[in-house]
Amino acid sequence: MKINNIGKVNVLVIVIIVVAQIIIAGVLYFILSSKGEQKIKPIKVEHSNKDAIISEEGGFTNTKARDYIKEYMITELSDIVVNPRNAPESFLVVSIALEHQTKNVNLITELKNKDLLIKDKVLSYFSIKEKEELQDIDSRESFKRDLKREINSLLIEGKISNVLIPQFVIQ
Q1: In sequence order, what are the residues at sequence separation of 6 or more whose Cβ sits closer than 8 angstroms to the Cβ of residue 19?
Q2: Residue 32, H or E segment
Q3: What is the model's pTM?
Q4: pLDDT, tens digit, for every residue of 5-31?
């Protein structure tokens, strides 16, 4: 009789452990699956821009922004690594973006074909700069103007309208 009672207790303990594991697994599944869902609250946006119009979907659209997207595109030259003058232990990683009109297909082709020449021009431009000059944030606008002039001097089919510098890291 003692053996029979011990066997019943062992079976009861095993059943309790299995049921507890199922409950824990269900709770964990519920917690983890609902964690990925984000509750998005609508944001009230006030439109006071006179250039805003109502689009076909019922939302507001800025006509100037829409026209800009139609007229201009960006050609990016990424991760150009330069050693500043008189600072062999330092380097600059710079990416530049060239803004130009989309309707000038010949310019787009020319920019692709002259990719290496433009990168070389950028490399030459920054490699003659001292590290201190590169670190001066106020110099960034003059860098953009100078690069625009230098790059436009290489182009025949058209001109870039702006130079953007999305990455500029000095180590």
Answers
A1: none
A2: helix 2-35
A3: 0.60
A4: 777 778 888 889 888 888 887 777 666
